Amino acid sequence: MATRGSVKPFVNFNAKHDAEVLRKAMKGIGTDEDAILMLLAARSNAQRQEIKAAYKKAFGKDLVKDLRSELGGKLEDLIVALMYPSILYDAHELHKAIKGVGTEDEVLIEILASRTCDEIKDIAKAYKKEYGSKLEKDIMGDTSGHYQRLLVILAQGNREEGVDESRVEKDAKELFAAGEEKFGTDEDKFINILGNRSAEHLRRVFDAYKKIAGCDIEESIKDECTGNLEALLLAVVKCAKSVPAYFAESVRESMRRAGTDDETLIRIMVSRSERDMLDIRAIYKKKYGESLYSTIQEDTDGDYQKALLYLCGGND
């Protein structure tokens, strides 16, 4: 798979050697944060899993526990996030979002709207194995209404494939009839079409919709829906158009609001570092006229900033 990630597997990788470097960085008085973040941010997720195993084998200790006890604050959150296997990290973030105090809807929305069908199936499996309950059941216990139903559809990871030529025009007309054209909104139509069609198909539907409605589908959703359902539908539309563009916007928002939303920033930088960070960076630069790298520099500091910049990978 051609990866558009900023983090690539380290070429002369030696798990045993890396485990020794990390142990040395944590042993004795004081912790060498620099050595830790430089090493772990420059290894792929699969390599970090090997380092974890080598560390346990050499020292009889759990690397993640040691990292937690030696590091603190946002740097700790970031490094611990890097140590999860990618799919388990998504499952963990969903579980935390559902089981924490109050539901963190933005996390449910981000993950379920942006991951591929295969990823979502793997996440659901990892979730069940790790937490002993079904992702779908937990979502249902914590959400309601049309918002809940669309989340459940997305959690199936069963989108159709390809473009069905015969349905493009029909879908666009149905969406128009369900929203702009009638008094009150037929949310079921929106949920069914946006939750089940492929991204390629939806892009064609959105073009047809614009011709019929005279506006973008996003504008109609903003007019017709509110709250979590609106946020989820918008995320689904943006991801159908371009997943990297969706993340460029999300990462911008995480840093540009009053006070940085570090949880979102960490989640995006960690989960996209090996998937599409290069595309996110290119779109970010084009859209906002500055590099993602420079925004991170302005908005964060210390070792935490350094680690984020490593994951970003370069200044555009």
Automatic annotation (TrEMBL):
Coiled coil: none
Gene3D superfamilies: Annexin
SMART domains for this protein: ANX
Taxonomy, superkingdom: Eukaryota
Gene Ontology BP term (one): negative regulation of coagulation
Keyword Calcium: yes
InterPro entries in the cross-refs: Annexin, Annexin_repeat, Annexin_repeat_CS, Annexin_sf, ANX5
Any one GO cellular component localisation term in the record: plasma membrane
Alphabetical keyword list: Annexin, Calcium, Calcium/phospholipid-binding, Repeat
Molecular function via GO: calcium ion binding; calcium-dependent phospholipid binding; phosphatidylserine binding
Family membership noted in the UniProt record: Belongs to the annexin family.
Note on domains (UniProt): A pair of annexin repeats may form one binding site for calcium and phospholipid.
Protein name: Annexin
Organism ancestry: Eukaryota, Metazoa, Chordata, Craniata, Vertebrata
